[in-house]
Amino acid sequence: MVGPMTRRPTCPICSETVKRRGEHFPFCSARCKTIDLGSWLGGDYRLPARPPEDIDPETLEKLLQGGPEA
Ligand SMILES: [Zn+2]
Q1: Would 3 be classed as within a structural domain?
Q2: Three-state DSSP class for 38?
Q3: Number of domains in the chain
């Protein structure tokens, strides 16, 4: 349901629209966050290719300024 012109971040689990400043960003809820974590622990998860425009500008800025402590 995500078109090429879409700029809203969506949950990688259920594709619901996610609030950029949401508590569980980039997930829509704690449930999806847990599902994602469980997938990682299960060893059967491939990191989805995420286009740069899908990253919150502030998050990107933090990553770029993170330095060795990040
Ligand atoms: Zn979700």
Answers
A1: no
A2: helix
A3: 1
Whole domain around residue 13: which residue ranges? 9-70
- In tens, the pLDDT along 7-52 reads 788 999 999 999 888 889 999 999 999 888 887 776 655 556 555 5
C-alpha of residue 19 to centroid of ligand 1, in Å: 11
Using the mean position of ligand 1's atoms as its centre, give its distance from the Cα of residue 70 in Å. 26
* Ligand 1 center–CA 68 separation, angstroms: 31
Query: Which tokens in the block code for residue 6?
Result: 């879409």
pTM of structure: 0.46
Query: How far apart are the CA of 21 and the centre of ligand 1, in A?
Result: 15
Cβ contacts of 57 within 8 Å, gap of 6 or more:
none
Ligand 1 centre and the CA of 14: distance in Å?
Answer: 4
